[in-house]
Amino acid sequence: MGLINIMIEKERLYGKTLNELIAVAKRIGLPGFTARQIADWLYRKEINSVEEMTNLSKKTREVLDSQYEIGLYPPESASESSDGTKKYLYRVLKNKYIETAYIPDSERATICVSSQSGCKMGCIFCMTGKQGFQGNLTSNEILNQFRSLPEFKSLTNMVFMGMGEPLDNLNEVLKTLEILTSDWGYGWSPTRITVSTVGLINPVKEFLERSRCHLALSLHSPFDIERRKLMPIQKTNTVEEVLDIIRNFDFNSQRRVSFEYILFKGLNDTPRHIKELARILNGIKCRINIIRFHQIPGSEFASPNLETTIAFKEALNAKGILTTIRASRGVDIQAACGLLSTIEQNRR
Ligand code: SF4
User: Fold this and answer.
1) Residue 198 Cβ contacting ligand 1 at under 6 Å
2) Would you say 174 and 197 are in contact if contact means Cβ atoms under 8 Å apart?
3) Which ligand 1 atom minimizes the distance to the CA of 127?
4) Per-block average pLDDT, block size 10, for the chain (348 residues)?
5) CB atoms within 10 A of CB 271
6) From CA 187, how far away is CA 33, in angstroms rounded?
7) Within its chain, how far is the Cα of 275 from the centroid?
8) Any atom of ligand 1 within 6 Å of the Cβ of 126
9) What is 48-66 written as a DSSP string?
10) Residue 347, CB half-sphere, CA atoms under 13 Å: how many?
């Protein structure tokens, strides 16, 4: 009989909310206030080991260290674009790879994080969708993309627009947002964070009620039949229902809702689409971000030329909808989300 080695993994402290740290403190017989001290070490003093928590007694640190680890780990590889955008691959769920993008832009530096490995939503233009679903990331795995990014200290904004549908992993995403925006955590303003979604009806409601971060809805077509073909979620969670929730939600002056619109040549870039977009978004204070399609292998889609893209934007602006064209970044480093991790997973 062979020798079986069982590695017992320690629980990770990084990524736990204050309430979860209070539970940790209780479990090992420490007073509740120790949890705030631990949070302070984890999220404000940026330590890398339990040993460094020097306002805890040596005995306490030993007990904590015997059962828990901090749980930070660096990306496994990086690619840099000629425009300064970088893409990092982090290993999660034992042997899966997720992508994190770093996007510097004059005074801003944005991190684009993944919330799942793969995705269930199956949008037909998306490489991550083609991977299928491999698992939800924990708040540790989401937040580690931020903290272990080499450019961590320069970050000003975060968007949840990487791999996965963030609102399909709502609890872990909400925990991450709580840590980022609480006074005991990173203390970021919620207006520095945008969470994107395909529009899952109940999770959108819950997200709007339980967080103060911006919302970005992936629209891509204002027509039911066309959107169904691009995004299967439209069959069960119609955009009309999501727009009703948004229309009836009391957004304060700081909080923003925006719509992502990937422009596909000959498919959703016509005057008919402009007219219908203006109709369905009537009464919603918002912005549309037009995104140029990043080609993925085997795809029948293409981007319209720049002239059509600009004309589309201007027509929407003329209808009173603030519309911008998002600059394509990192085109020379497999900009389409999911492409780099698919290549890496296939290679291994
Ligand atoms: S576009 Fe987003 S929601 Fe759709 S399959 Fe890709 S990762 Fe999932």
Assistant:
1) yes
2) no
3) 6
4) 57 97 94 93 94 93 94 94 93 89 94 96 91 95 98 97 97 98 98 97 97 97 97 97 95 90 95 97 93 82 92 96 87 70 72
5) 10
6) 19
7) 30
8) yes
9) SSGGG-TTS-HHHHHHHHH
10) 7
